[in-house]
Known about the structure:
5 helices; two-stranded antiparallel ribbon; elongated; mainly alpha
Amino acid sequence: MMAVPPVLLLLELGLYASCFVCGIVAAASLTIVQGNFNGLCMLYGQVSFNATAKVIGVQTSTAPSLCYFVSAVSVMVAVVCFCLSLYWVYAFCMEGEMRRERVWVNLMIVVSGIFLFFLLITGCMLKIGRDTLCDSIIKNVPNVTRCDQAQTQKWVSPFQGDRIYTNLHKSETAVWVNFFFWLIIGVLVIVQRCRRPGAMLVPTPTGALFGEPGATAAETEPFFNRPPRPQ
C-alpha cells in the first residue's frame, strides 16, 4: 500500500475535474452540430452551393455512428473522471489520508493507456473530418476563403450552419486537451508506481484515522523483543 502525497492528490483531482469538463464539452459540441443538421454527421462531409438561391446544401455526409462513437468516447472519459473524483474526495474525507494499493496503480496505468489510445483516435477523426469538410466548403462556395466564413452564409433549410465550424473546432480542442491531461495523469501514476519501497505505508491503527498517533517503535518493541524471564 502506497501513500499519495497531498500535492499529487490535489493535482490528480484537478486533472480529473478538467478531464470531466473537456469530455462534456467535446460531446456536447459535436451533438449540437448533429442536431443542427437533422442528425447528419458532418465530419468528412461534402457540401454543394446553389448559385440561384445562394444557399449551401449538404451533398454527402458520414454515417451518424461515426459521430456517436466520438461522443461516446468523450462521455465515457467524463463519467470515469467524475467517479474517480468522487471516490478520492470521499476516501480523503473518511480516512484523512490517501493510500493506494499497488494493484490499483497498475489498473490506472492500463486505464490511462486505453483512454489515451481512444482520445488519440477521436482527436485525429475530428481533425481530419473537419479539414475535409472545410476543404469542400472553400472549394465549392464562392467568396469563401476560410471555413469559419461559411457560418455567415445561408444554408438550405432545415440545416443551421451558423456555428458549425465553431462547434467542431471546440469539440476537437476539448479532445486534444483531454488527451494532454490524461498523458499527465499517466505520468503521475507511473511515478507513483516507481517510487522506492520505503514509500510503502504500514497500516496504522484505527485511532490514527481520527488524529491519534500510530504505534511507535518503543510501544511495539515488547511484542517482538521480549526480555528474558528471570531464572
